[in-house]
Amino acid sequence: MFKVNSAFLSFIIILTASFCPLMAQSGSDQAEINEKYLPTSVVKRLSYENFRNIKLLRSAIMNYGGGDAEIQKLIDQYADASALYFQDKVSEAAKKYTENEKEIFKVARRLAKSYRDDSTAFLNKSIKRGIKVTLEMEVNGKHTSMVMEKYLNNAKYAYKKANSIYDDFKYVNEEKSSPAYKLITSIYYYRLSKKNLFLMYKAYGETMNLDKDKKKNEQMVNDKIDKMIQEDYKPDYKKDLKDNENKIYTSMEKKI
């Protein structure tokens, strides 16, 4: 996925080794050295965090963000900062890593908002669909699906969890250095919410019996559920199925 993995691990080892002299100091000497080497602390922290966050955001950026160009911009910033560090330009490297952190945060927040909007619309429609299905089953003397209810409740819980994280960062100044990891976590929960909603529709399909022939029934059920999801969510929802697994979606057209 990333060709810089082995180099990055070597980089972290070198950074850690460079901190060993600091660990042996104490008292006023320690405070003086900490002030002197503050940029080095920034480099050590962000060289790890920025790399991790770029990697975690990759599929979201490719599926719903700026694609290769946006990923490459973040990687180029990271590489520039690393190059400065290895030239012993520690202060400049710390500044460049901080710029990289800000850019990653902007991307993460923009994506998190997009996931929030999608999840909100899908959940609202799914709740209405669940109510309608329950009423139809009861009117026809059938038992309601406990499996559908379970998936819907799971989706609500994940959505609430995602919102609680997202709301903490909704009004943060993008020009200030802020960690993106929690926003990435909110994306994870928005994905989890949508994943459970898809499972709810699948569970509904398992309650249907549209034809005596097994294969024909399976195809008719799949077609009906597909149409429902398109109505309640969006026509190109198959991209979401892949994205929910943190994987990059590639259409058949691109493969040909």
Keywords:
elongated, 11 helices, 256 residues, mainly alpha
Per-chain topology:
Blueprint: H1 5-18, H2 20-23, H3 27-36, H4 38-64, H5 67-86, H6 90-139, H7 146-166, H8 181-205, H9 214-232, H10 238-243, H11 252-255
Helix pairs in contact: 1-4, 4-5, 4-6, 5-6, 6-7, 6-8, 7-8, 8-9
Describe the model.
This protein has 256 residues and is an all-alpha fold. 78% of the residues lie in helices and 0% in strands. It has eleven helices and no strands. It has helices at 5-18, 20-23, 27-36, 38-64, 67-86, 90-139, 146-166, 181-205, 214-232, 238-243, 252-255. The longest helix is centred in the middle third of the chain and has 50 residues, at 90-139. The model is unreliable at 11-36 (pLDDT under 50).
How would you summarize this macromolecular structure in one to three sentences?
With 256 residues, the protein is mostly helical. Helix content is 78%, strand content 0%.
Q: Specify the biggest β-sheet.
A: none
Beta-strand content bin: under 5%
Count of discrete alpha- or pi-helical segments spanning 4 or more residues: 11
Structural class: mainly alpha
Radius of gyration: 24 Å
Oligomerization: single chain
Instruction: Give the integer mean of the pLDDT values.
Output: 86
Give start-end ranges of low-pLDDT stretches: 11-36
Broad shape:
elongated
Distance between the terminal alpha carbons, to the nearest Å?
A: 22 Å
What is the strand tally?
0
Helix-strand pattern: HHHHHHHHHHH
- Helix proportion: over 70%
